[in-house]
Amino acid sequence: MSWLRNRSVDAKASLFQRRRARLSVDVLEARAVPATMLVNDNWFLARDADHNGAISAGDTVDNRNDRGAVRVRATFGTNAFSYINAAVDASTDGDTVKVLQGAYVGNVTIDKSLTVLGANANVSAGLGAGRRGAESIINGAVTIDASDVTLKGFKIINGAHLDNPNETLGVWLDAGATGVTISNNVITGAGVGRGILSTFNGGNDDLTIQGNNISGWTTGIYNQGNTGVVVAFNKIHDNTVGIGNDSVTDLVVRNNAIFNNDVEGIGLSGSNEVTVRLNNFSGNGLAIHNYGGGDTVDASLNYWGTTNADAIAAMVAGDVTTSNPLSAPVTLTTHVFSGSDISFVFDTATGAFTLFLADGTMFSGRAHLNRHGRLDLHVHNRDVRVDIKGSIRGTLTLDLRQGHTRQRFTLQDEAGSGSSSGTPGHHGGEHHDDDHDDDHDDRD
Ligand SMILES: [Ca+2]
Ligand SMILES: [Ca+2]
Question: How many CA atoms lie less than 13 Å away from 95 in the CB half-sphere?
Answer without folding.
Answer: 19
